[in-house]
Specification:
Shape: globular
CATH architecture: 3-Layer(aba) Sandwich
Order of helices and strands: EHEHHHEHEEEHEH
Largest sheet: 5 strands, parallel
Number of helices: 7
Distance between the termini: 27 Å
Keywords: Flavoprotein, FMN, NAD, Oxidoreductase
Oligomer: single chain
Pfam families: Flavodoxin_2 (PF02525)
EC number: 1.6.5.-, 1.7.1.17
CATH class: Alpha Beta
Function: Also exhibits azoreductase activity. Catalyzes the reductive cleavage of the azo bond in aromatic azo compounds to the corresponding amines.
Subunit structure: Homodimer.
Helix content: 25-40%
Strand content: 15-25%
């Protein structure tokens, strides 16, 4: 049984190209594995909590020391951490907006980068990531087409950032699948074809 977590960060929902690409990735993964269980976290379905003073204060206390308000503040973080820890494979949809990820995805990342859950420090002060033995597929889409333009915001700002933060939490196998030019009037793509040989996709390092 493979537990797959699909994270959606497109405000377009099912019409979003990153969602369609992610679903094609999941379809291919489920074809490869005898059994798979899919969980979904739509970051635009409800308002996400953003880091504030109370949240940060709660992070530096153990559960017994926190106030009821502080524990409530961490309830969303607790829920999404349970999901990500349970996942064997994560399919992360990341459409590009203004050369960056959607604000909801950044807010989500702020909820899952958490001491004692996804990162820890050893006695010598060195940091270790705790999310080991997981694979992440990045379903990245961009309205513009930057191929051969000398400017590569998709890799420079999206892939590199997500790779850095996922590595920070201990995830080493990260496979980006990228579609550009989705805003073109004549844009057409076969999502299944892109994912046909997903095993041969190259992990970033």
């Amino acid at each position: 049984m493979k537990n797959i977590l699909h994270i959606i960060s497109s405000p377009k929902g099912e019409h979003g190209h990153s969602v369609k690409l992610a679903r094609a990735i999941i379809k291919q993964l489920c074809n490869q594995h005898k059994e798979c269980k899919i969980a979904e976290r739509d970051l635009l379905a409800a308002e996400l909590p953003y880091l504030d003073g109370l949240h940060i204060s709660a992070l530096f206390k153990n559960e017994a020391e926190r106030s009821d308000d502080e524990n409530q503040k961490l309830s969303y973080s607790d829920a999404v951490l349970r999901e990500i820890k349970a996942a064997d494979i994560i399919v992360l949809g990341a459409p590009m907006y203004n050369f960056g990820i959607h604000a909801a995805l950044k807010a989500y990342i702020d909820q899952i980068v958490r001491f004692g859950h996804t990162i820890a420090y050893q006695r010598d002060g060195s940091r270790i990531g705790l999310l080991k033995d997981k694979v992440v597929y990045l379903a990245i889409t961009a309205g513009g087409n930057y191929t051969n333009s000398g400017f590569d915001p998709v890799n420079d700002y999206i892939v590199n950032y997500l790779q850095t933060i996922l590595n920070y939490m201990g995830i080493e196998t990260i496979i980006p699948l990228i579609i550009e030019g989705t805003a073109a009037p004549d844009f057409m793509v076969d999502y299944d074809q892109i994912c046909n040989d997903i095993q041969s996709a190259t992990a970033v390092s």
